[in-house]
Design brief:
Elements (H helix, E strand, L loop, with lengths): L5 E2 L1 H10 L6 H13 L2 E6 L2 E5 L7 E5 L7 E5 L1
Parallel strand pairs: 1-5
Antiparallel strand pairs: 2-3, 3-4, 4-5
């Protein structure tokens, strides 16, 4: 499954810890990819971007430059 960003393992772990503790790693990754598709850009700061996910959770995501052609979802706030 691919999305708009490369999702780092750290971002998946943060998502599980903060929002989805009952999900497995693979389920959480799939959720983050789905949520990233509906996210909207908020602002750019210190070389990274802040994005906000869709309602109802509206979780905040930090996106930075990736190693490949896609930007990387670095962490979930």
């Amino acid at each position: 499954m691919t999305g708009r960003w490369f999702v780092t393992p750290h971002a998946v772990r943060q998502y599980v810890q903060r929002y989805a503790y009952q999900l497995s790693y693979d389920q959480a990754l799939a959720n983050l990819i789905r949520l990233s598709e509906g996210a909207r850009f908020i602002r750019r700061s210190h070389g990274c971007e802040l994005w906000r996910g869709p309602r109802p959770s509206r979780l905040r995501m930090i996106v930075g430059p990736g190693d490949g052609e896609k930007p990387a979802l670095v962490t979930v706030l």
